[in-house]
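Quick one: co-fold with 6-O-phosphono-alpha-D-glucopyranose.
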Amino acid sequence: ARVDKAGHKHFMAKEIAEQPRVIGEALRHYLGAEGTDIALPDEIDFTKLDRLTMVACGTAFYACLTAKYWFEQIAGMPVEVDVASEFRYREPPISDRTAALFVSQSGETADTLAALRYCQGKADQILSVVNVPESSIARESDVALPILAGVEIGVASTKAFTCQLTVLLLLALEAAKQRGRMTPERLADLTSHMRALPTVLNAALDEDAAMQACATGLAEAQDVLFLGRGLMYPLALEGALKLKEISYIHAEAYASGELKHGPIALIDRNVPVVVFAPRDSLFEKSVSNMQEVMAREGKVLLISDAAGAKDAAADAWKTITMPAIDPVLAPIVYAIPAQLLAYHTAVAKGTDVDQPRNLAKSVTVE
Ligand code: G6P
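Sure, here it is.
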């Protein structure tokens, strides 16, 4: 079927807006309407594994990095994550108690496919999380899990990212369950929060006009720094990637705690600093990093929830308020402002949002 922009100016805008619906579809597929059963193939057995090795490129790599925090924190499972182009030539030893998990929107990325082939015959199992079920990566996996995002046209990945996160979080919950790492109450709690995601994502999308106002300021910048801690660190990396891909503004992300080890030298009044900081257990630390930025005249764009904004917005350049959410699910919700910020900045600069220069939707050659 032909895919059109459905009234939006760009495919990227349409795909951002579609997220509540497609995530709802992925949730219906894997979680159903009630209960805590996660519909996954029986071959997925986390009890026989010592380790998970996750490999991907680009945005899918940041989805893997997020999932590392989930698997380690909620399922107690060690995870190694790498970009495919490094992994495939490093000759990493893979034990037969490792599952190798490949994440790819297209399922055709050359480096990711080569990394998968490297793991065949070494890992206990080859898993993949893909958007295209007929793709090479899906076909060559033992188990391929669809993300059900629908066709994604914008070169900068948006809805595929949040659908990848949704499926990876469900996998981490299944691992926690199988490995006896989570009480039934906590599992019921998290699955019900997941079912509420479409509503929460719609509330996040309501901040569109506020994001657009911030973007006007960002469009002037030469460099933008993104900061986050814990689960917000991979999201900061994804936010910086989105901005550089489509607005051509130099952006880099750091784990907030690394600020002192280098990037703080770059801070002055010309460098906007985007801080992702929901009011979670690391919030106070993020706030003190923010203050270090502001003490050097850095312009902070704080993205937090109402409780966080109340405590920390005072000296920020701008604050965006996200709906309150269990911290475990925050990366899925905070992806929305990361995407909207990049989108509106690119529109303000007049770049080709859906077809940015030098980039391809799918990198099928090395
Ligand atoms: C390209 C695209 C990115 C994508 C990456 C990995 O760089 O422009 O949006 O994240 O490839 O693609 P994959 O299809 O493997 O997820």
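If it helps, Strands lie at 51-56, 79-83, 98-104, 125-130, 143-146, 223-228, 250-255, 272-276, 299-305, 318-322.
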